[in-house]
Each structure stands twice: as structure tokens, then as C-alpha cells.
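re: ur question from earlier - yeah i can do the single chain one, its not a big deal. heres the input i used so u can compare w yours
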Amino acid sequence: MIGRLWLLCHLLYLSAEDMREHQVSMGVILELGGSGLLYVLAAGRTPRLLPGACLLLLGVCTQEQIGCGDGWLMLALGMWLGSAELLWILFLGIGFGSLYGLLTRRKEIPLVPFLTAAYMIGGLL
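and the output i got, formated as C-alpha cells:
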């Protein structure tokens, strides 16, 4: 329960930052990832790094059409979440963001608020 609240607080902060500045603080992401690494080591789990690594690669290949900060955030989330929940957040967040972009005809949108919404919806289900 405390871990979920820790994640939510970080995601809400990063969402506000992404909406305001169109970038996210690497310090906050490193704090989330570092604490997640401690969690992974204490729990004897394996971090789920593939979704974040793929998003980072996509960011590099598209010259940051998808920001690398989003990839780093997914890497940090991969320390805390299982594969199914991590993929749920990624695909639902991208879906929400795409729908918002289509409805508003905006080409550049912050992704973190939509990842946060997907995380919150996943916590309710």
C-alpha cells in the first residue's frame, strides 16, 4: 500500500511538471528508480526493464518525438510493477494520449499524465 502511494505521488508530481514544462525531472525519476531498486533487491524480484528500454529506443529513433524521459520513467516503474501492470499502464496511457491528441488535434502532448491516469484506473480495478 505504501509503495502504491509512493508511486502515485511521484506520478502526480511528474504529470504536473510534464504538463507545465513538457519535460520531466530526472532527479525525481532517479529517486523513484533508486528506491524501486532497493524494493526489488529486498523482495528478491526481477525488475521489468523491457518496456522502458523499448520506449527509450523509440525516443532515440524518433529524435524524441516520444521523450526519453518517458522511457526513463517506464524503467523506474519497472522496478516497482509486474509485467502485466506495467504493460497495462503503457498501452492504456498511450491510447489515452492518442485519443486526446486526435480530439484536440495537438501533435505534441505530454505522456506522463496519461500514464498516471492509467495507473490510477489500474489501481481501481
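The chain has a mean pLDDT of 93. not sure if urs matches, ping me
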